[in-house]
Every structure is written in C-alpha cells, then in structure tokens.
Design a protein that fits this description.
Blueprint: H1 14-24, H2 28-35, H3 39-47, H4 54-69
Helix pairs in contact: 1-4, 2-3
Length: about 80
C-alpha cells in the first residue's frame, strides 16, 4: 500500500462525509469517539458548518474504500428441517 496524498482542505463535501459514515454503518457520535473529536465538531462537518480536516477526510475515504472492496462476511441462516 502506497502513501496517499493529503486531501486538500475543503475537498470532502458534507455529502461525501455522510456517505462514508453510512457505508461504514458509523454514527457521527461513533466517529467522534474514534477520531477523538467532540461530537459537536463532527456534526458541524456533517452539516457543512465547518470544513472536514484533511487528515480525517483522507483516513475516512481510505477506510470507506477498503470496506467497500472488502465487505464483512454475511452469515447465512440455515433453513429449519
């Protein structure tokens, strides 16, 4: 895996941010805990009231891309006999 270029400030839109969270099944509160930020700040990113930091945007895009190409296993239920 190569080094990724930093994402320029303001290049991840709030819609892209929310799409990444939805793909990962993460809440804004959950992401705040993961990245060590205040929930209010994460809500500002999601609403577009504050720019998404480039390091958070790059990491979130990387994790979302990985998960979209490597989904978790799906448990298959057996039919009752």
């Amino acid at each position: 895996m190569g080094i990724q270029r930093p994402i320029p400030p303001g290049s991840m839109t709030p819609d892209q941010f929310r799409e990444c969270l939805a793909l990962l099944h993460w809440s804004q509160r959950g992401l705040a805990g993961i990245v060590g930020r205040d929930e209010r700040q994460v809500r500002r990113w999601a609403s577009g009231d504050a720019p998404i930091p480039p390091d958070v945007a790059a990491w979130l895009q990387h994790v979302a891309a990985f998960m979209s190409h490597n989904p978790p296993p799906v448990r298959v239920r057996r039919r009752p006999k």
